[in-house]
Amino acid sequence: MNEWTSTPRFEESVRQSFGVPGIRSAFVDKVYGDLIRRASEKPRKNRLFFGLQPAGIVALAILSLMLIVTLVIGPQRVYAAILQLLGYIPGVGIVDPSYPIRTLAEPVTVTRDGISITVTSAVLTGDRTHIDLRVFGVPSSAYPDREDVMGCGQQPYLRLPDGIQLVHKGDFPPIPADVNEAIIVIPCISGTLPGTVPENWELPLRFVPAPPDLTVIPVIESFPSQTPSAMANTPTAEINPLRILKVLDIGDRFVLMGEFSYNAAQDASLPAGSWWAIQRISITGADGRDVPQSSSNDFSLPTPTQPGNVTWLFLLDKNFVPPVTITYAGKIISPVGGKEQAEFEFDAGLNPKDGMVWTVNKDFKLGGYNIRLVSIESSSRGYSFHFKADPGASANAISVDIAGYSPNCGGGGGGELFPEEFDRNICYADLPGASEFPHGKINIVINFQALVRQDKSFQVQWSPDTPFATSTPQSGVCLTSNAITQLGPAPTNLTGGTALMYEKLDENNRWGLVLYGLDGIRKQVVTSAGNWGALSPDGGRVAYSALDNGIHIFDLDSQIDKALPGAAGYNLRWSTDGTRIAYVGQGNNGESSVFVVNTDGTQPRRISNLAYGSLIGWSPDGAQLYFTIPFTGGAAWKVFSYNLESHEPRELFTIENGTPKFLNPQLSPDGNWIAYRGRDNSSLYLVRTDGTDTRLVLDNAGVVGIQWSRSGWLGVSLRKANSDESTVLILKPDTCEAYLLPAALHGDLEGLFIP
Amino acid sequence: MTESGIPLTSEKDDRESEEKKLIKAARQDPKAFGGLYLRYVEPVFRYLCSRLGNVHEAEDITAQTFLIAFESFNRFRQDGHFTSWLFTIARNKAMDHFRERKETTPIDDLHEIPLESDPLNAVIQSEQAAALSKLIRALPEEDSELLRLRFLAAMSYPEIAHFLHRNEEAVKKSVYRLLARLHDQLEVPNE
């Protein structure tokens, strides 16, 4: 090989050349002691629900509710359902509604040097102060232009009238009930460099009793009986290790919390040394359909009942046929038969050097498999053994020892399922108590342990104690997640189109852009070295961001890949006539901004100096470019249009219900609608480009990829919960006509062409 | 899917599996956060020491980093990357520290601050090591940060990519090219 390959020894030299000394054990011990002391003082998280409530009120509430529940569901089930009086405020979490809740009297805005900070809302409860604030107008030049330079990280705090400061830690601590004013102090705008924008902001806040229309959803907390549990492949007499600990009914959803406690090593029915490997988690209703789930940061995992148990939490939409079955599917892997060994002598020489390779080609028969040790390589840390073997051999446990030497920084193990070529490494780094580095004539021992695998699943079922009303889809919703599985395939007049997918290409975890025919049969890998793909409006070219961030155009007919010199960035959008591409790139000082480049590579030019832009698309006539700028510190996005002739940006409206993570806004080909992902990271919304007529199109469907075709079809890729699998569908938002695309299309949708 | 629990796993799998166990344990019992601390305290210290150039300050910021991580651990979500999260706190604290002493010490000059007890001299035992050290000191900050994350913070490529919001392959290539360049400049024989 001509290319230089880094060696562990050289990398160790690099590490040491930083000249960093070892850490002092006295320091480690001191901080450890401090942490443990603090941990001893820290209450466990799940006590929050109880801790919130004044004892008298709680007792009264429980007694009242037990009486109601006894009447509703019968006394025989009351033992299993102890209820508490709780409330849920979306975006805030579980609160104690018996404590007087206060809110912000009115939004407060302070503007300095063109930058505005607005406190839009606040919720004050007995255990926290939740404040939403937005920052807008920060120029991109205020942010670091290099990744290794961090901007401001100082947290804001609340200053009470008596001077007490409440420091922000996720939320602020509670404000005493008799204090109705505070000042929020923001030492600097998060992420900005010192001296670039105004600092030391102070916004006076005033709090009032919560208005009657504040959404506080009554929560019923219950502790279900474990009687209906079931465990697949296991005698019913055994205790089910998959347990539901608690259920919260929060109106339109159930929050199921539970734990999993199986340990194959302690399963007496299995051979010693067995273990269980989880492969899939599914939640299905009685009709066999997947139960729609939501995501939320408003809830914390429950605390396990025993150390070592794993806890879990699922939010289920009230849109299923009970009972639901939660399944943990996996495999039991057990050693079978005795351990086999092969040993041979090998001469590494008196002074084995880093990077030396010995060709061995020695054959062994272990466990009925032909196994060849191809070569041995030494490094500064130990030895690496390269094997080739019959298919399936490496699905067993194969390890390497050097007789008389104990590895002390990682043994010679392995466990691949399929590779017919594999490596085993033994390490003898210079750790305290390390063996002498093996050298000279050494005895190499190859260990083989056959393994068997059997499927094993664990299941638990759960039904609500009382019937529930199915969530009513909002008016205008085209499809609920349940309805999606019932969609038919696209008619043949549409299958001539193409879809660009960003997908996992192979088991080596390489991802790339792949073009599919909508029939699912035609397939063409565009690139394995790029992402942020964009299909030209005529479907003939793919623009993408290469690994070096450079923008390339791949012509699907000629197969010619062309880099656009001087254009580097992501978030690509073709103009309707296919002559220009807009993208988010970096200016001369490294700040991110919106750029436009001609598709022949000429005239890359910057059109916005606001930071962190995200492109929406071009108007049909190519005169306007739409993009969004997020409020920092909030989940709202300002929508702008930019006139490419007059060079005038115009603020249009604000998307208030978009996801703060990946909005993925896309402009319809007629220029009238913007499609985007909702606040739940899962739903699809449309809004007109003048900000009116917001519509929910897909409710909690796992929406990730969104693409319009020039013919008005809207393509969406949906990521399944707890899975890397995805589903792709196309729909007409005005009529809700929708079709599923073939399962061959997977990954994220990045382009759609339907003539 | 990785078969977690396999007795003879690779070092990387062991590390990920152990980290997950520690995170789960810390969620159950705040005291178990001590396990995460013991696992990461040295990489965090080494990283900060390299950035700050001062052992005492590095210890101070290391302690602050873990106390903040401990106090805000309930905000760390299972789907997050713990290493990236932890080092983000460390980096933020380091920047706060820079900002506080900005009045007297320009950031760009920090690398010229002599290390207390000059541990560098204890390490440099050959002309080659000294030359390598000099080359690393002369690197642009973004390049030395990559090496710092890889070799002092002992972060994996996916962790670095997540931490820097960059593509994993691009990070790998950058580190590789950086090492190759250093190697070429050193003209190391037989490497």
Number of helices of chain B: 9
Look up the CATH topology of the largest domain in chain A: Neuraminidase
Task: Write the element-wise H/E pattern of chain B from the N-terminal end onward.
Answer: HHHHHHHHH
Query: Kindly state the mean pLDDT of chain B as a whole number?
Result: 68
Helix percentage of chain B? 55-70%
> What Rg of chain B is obtained from the alpha carbons, in whole angstroms?
18 Å
Average predicted confidence as pLDDT of chain A: 80
Question: Which band does the percent of strand residues of chain B land in?
Answer: under 5%
CATH H-level homologous superfamily name of the largest domain in chain A: TolB, C-terminal domain
Major beta sheet summary of chain A: 8 strands, antiparallel
Task: Report the structural category of chain A.
Answer: mainly beta
Please give the oligomerization state of what you see: heterodimer
The gross shape of chain A turns out to be: globular
Text of the CATH class of the largest domain in chain B? Mainly Alpha
Radius of gyration of chain A: 31 Å
Task: Give a written overview of the molecule.
The complex is a heterodimer of chains A (755) and B (191). Chain A has 755 residues and is mostly beta strands. Chain A is globular. Chain A contains six helices and 49 strands. Helix content of chain A is 8%, strand content 43%. Residues 43-84, 227-237, 409-418 and 430-434 of chain A have low confidence and may be disordered. Chain A has four domains: 105-209; 224-335 and 454-462, no CATH class; 340-449; 499-726 and 748-753, TolB, C-terminal domain (Neuraminidase), CATH 2.120.10. In chain A, strand 20 (369-378) and strand 21 (382-389) form a beta hairpin. Chain B has 191 residues and is mostly helical. Chain B has two domains: 12-110, Rna Polymerase Sigma Factor, Chain: A (Orthogonal Bundle); 124-191, Orthogonal Bundle (Arc Repressor Mutant, subunit A). In chain B, helix 8 crosses helix 9. The relative contact order of chain B is 0.09. Residues 1-14 and 102-126 of chain B have low confidence and may be disordered.
